[in-house]
Amino acid sequence: MNDARRSADHDLAQARAALARGEMSHAAGHLAGAIAHAPTLPETHELLSLLAARADGGLDLFPLERHAFVGTIVARAHLLAAAGRPEDGLPLLVAASGNTPGTDWAGVPWVSDPALAVRMEPSLLARVVMQLCTAIGDPAPLQGRDSLRPYLTLMRHAVTAHPGHALLLGAGSALARRLGETRLAVDWAELAVAAESTKLGEIWLGYAYRSAGRTGEALEALGRAVAHDPDDLSVYADIAATLADDGRLDEALSWADRALARDPTYDCAVHTAGRLRFRADGDLTHLVRVADFQRDHPDDAHEHTDLADCCRGVPWLGHVPPAGFPRHDPRRRPPVSQRPSAAAIERLRRVASPTWGHPPTAYDAALGLVLVEPDELLALLIHTPPVDPGMAGSASRSDRAWWERTARVWACLGLLHHGADEPWACSARRRRLVELVSDGTDQITEAALFALVVYAWVDPAARIDVAALITRRLIDAARGENGMSTASAWSIAQMALATPEIDPAASRLAASMAEARAATLGPDVPQQRRRGTTRRLLRWLSGGLSPRSPQ
């Protein structure tokens, strides 16, 4: 905050000097900078008023252009309000708030003035607030809510000025709900539906009830929304999600299937159904199908988090496991004389993170490493850079070890982007990773294995090959071969569980190995039986049993 104030003061000084010289455009530019740094600073608004008086309103000095600077947009909004046109200025202010909700763009007197609510046509105000709601998230981030409350004050004045206006009440309910004002959201939504029952009104009411924990009433309202418009499949997905949150998974899946029966390519239904089916049976295939759909439909109506939600907290699907890894053993690797350059280290630091949304997002995030030559990426595997100072708790020994594993993972992901136009089976990127996998068992082996798994997620043509490679290492892990430690066996088992199209028997073996390493065993499954299951699956994968499910 101190830095922002100093920057604003500097811009204000420059603006005053330019204004004294009659350089209006320069003064406007510095004022826009001051507003961007400190939007509610009284000195800024005083100088803006002075500039407007000397430049015939000053609007021409703050033009709306493509990719306009946010300070310019906000300054123009204030000048429009000062010129008696606040209804034209408010959408500009809302655009700034939608872009950076945590900045106090609206903390100025004219936004909270009851006169604005009286002046603005209620349907226009409702649409402006609906645009804000779309931009700020649902719910709005806690740390940014105070800066958005002036808009809620405006809506309170508007509801008082225009009682019974259904669209205004509904939009106000949507904003109140996002800001954590659940009771107000319910009250306004109920008044909106009482004034006029519409699909949108019933949706707003359903959301408000759901936020208040009134699930039954929420489902009733959303059901009425479906009756208003049976072709709006987004409501089907909302009902499915609400039922799932209430523990009614079978009913939830039936609503998702109803939506897919109407349109098998409807994005909300595909994502919701995949998430719910994975929740029902834990089959990775559902998530892979969602990822494939997402790749093949890049122009979905909006961003979905279902895949990331399912992968969050799952080893290798959403993060580098922080414990239970084998330590890197440099004796297993030929010495690398080349050390990575400072530029290569910096590029690695920019992308390396122990967490990611889901495997395809990890692949995309590693694209920047295409600017690091493969030899340097290999050097980064051996000569990992010091712990990233931005990593939380990085002073501890465990976090230093976690950073080393993380750095190696991203170096291997970077190798995937070199020669990406080559067919997978004969590509240099496959050859490099397989060589890394084949030489011993350590952190580099696991990092290379994970890169193979990630590539299987993004390229269906590579899945059979990668599944075979992972299965081979899984068998080694189960047998304890190639110096495989218990910790490494657990990690490779988790990786196998994250591998698309792996053989069901291999998946069951991986699950058995992962369970065997659990800190506690379920009372209904004795440890001896778990070991027997592992041996049976291992013999089947090695060709010694019929492919029946283990008992």
From TrEMBL:
Record InterPro entries: TPR-like_helical_dom_sf (IPR011990), TPR_rpt (IPR019734)
Alphabetized Pfam families for the sequence: TPR_19 (PF14559)
Segments annotated as TPR repeats: 199-232
Coiled coil stretches, renumbered: none
SMART domains per UniProt: TPR
UniProt keywords, alphabetically: TPR repeat
Protein name: Tetratricopeptide repeat-containing protein
